[in-house]
Q: What sequence folds into this?
């Protein structure tokens, strides 16, 4: 199915049909939500290093640059942007965790390396985490989108069936490779506030962790993050208090969320690109019966898909 010639093994554990959970920094990681979720799963479960994927073939170092570190204030060393793999056991369930920058090059070869890991440990499922920026209020529950192409996963975990056509990233390529290799796979995305895109969102990270752990079948190690979530909400509350326009805007989003006001997806529900990692949704105030509900994950997913299709023109 796959090869592992570009993987450096650190340990050789005996794992029983693990679920593989992955997140990549960059385009798929608005407000650092997905990467933070993965990092906290590694820490919360006390995961053990399993392997590293050699970055040489897969990384454009002019785009994702290595860092210089000093040891003892004198010895200089280069830290390369490497994708790491860890393994953990929680509630009797084995999990492999994958975290690192989205590879820039040779995506098919990169996918082949991960498939080699799946084959080596007979992985039962592959789950990716991502986050996008949208017009949603920080003071309300995080909206999550879950998609899969495997009908059994769609039914079992109440996911949306992916119907997307258009440009994609490494997440889409990996799921395609899983489909060809008959490895069940699914994807979770968290919508985070567009007005706070430069602020890391532990709230979205917690939501991703909880949903991912529901699917894996193990408790989510989120207790240590609750203080960070409270601090995040407090920080945004203070930021909004100092800006009357922003306060009115967020209030409008809160009102729509609380009252079930809808999105007119025919006229005013548009997506404007601000950069390659950001989506901005314009919500209509129309409450017509034929519009989709603000919390409707399927409607949100359709607009995400349209955004991705629009990238082809750029």
A:
């Amino acid at each position: 199915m796959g090869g592992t010639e570009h993987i450096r093994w650190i340990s050789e554990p005996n794992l029983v049909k693990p679920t593989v959970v992955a997140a990549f920094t960059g385009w798929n990681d608005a407000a650092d939500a997905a990467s933070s979720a993965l990092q906290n799963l590694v820490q919360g479960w006390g995961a053990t290093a399993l392997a590293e994927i050699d970055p040489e073939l897969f990384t454009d170092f002019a785009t994702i640059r290595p860092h210089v570190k000093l040891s003892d204030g004198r010895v200089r060393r280069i830290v390369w942007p490497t994708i790491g793999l860890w393994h953990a056991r929680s509630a009797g369930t084995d999990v492999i965790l994958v975290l690192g920058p989205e590879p820039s090059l040779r995506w098919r070869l990169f996918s082949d390396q991960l498939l080699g890991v799946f084959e080596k440990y007979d992985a039962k499922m592959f789950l990716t985490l991502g986050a996008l920026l949208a017009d949603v209020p920080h003071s309300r529950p995080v909206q999550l989108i879950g998609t899969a192409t495997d009908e059994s996963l769609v039914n079992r975990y109440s996911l949306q069936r992916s119907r997307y056509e258009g440009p994609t990233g490494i997440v889409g390529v990996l799921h395609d490779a899983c489909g060809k290799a008959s490895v069940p796979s699914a994807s979770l995305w968290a919508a985070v506030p567009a007005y706070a895109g430069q602020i890391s969102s532990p709230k979205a990270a917690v939501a991703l962790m909880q949903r991912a752990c529901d699917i894996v079948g193990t408790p989510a190690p989120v207790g240590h993050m609750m203080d960070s979530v409270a601090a995040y909400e407090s920080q945004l509350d203070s930021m909004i208090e100092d800006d009357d326009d922003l306060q009115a805007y967020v209030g409008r989003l809160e009102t729509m969320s609380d009252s079930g006001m809808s999105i007119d997806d025919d006229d005013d529900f548009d997506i404007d690109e601000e950069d390659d990692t950001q989506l901005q949704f314009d919500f209509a105030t129309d409450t017509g019966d034929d519009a989709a509900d603000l919390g409707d994950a399927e409607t949100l997913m359709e607009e995400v898909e349209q955004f991705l299709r629009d990238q082809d023109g750029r």
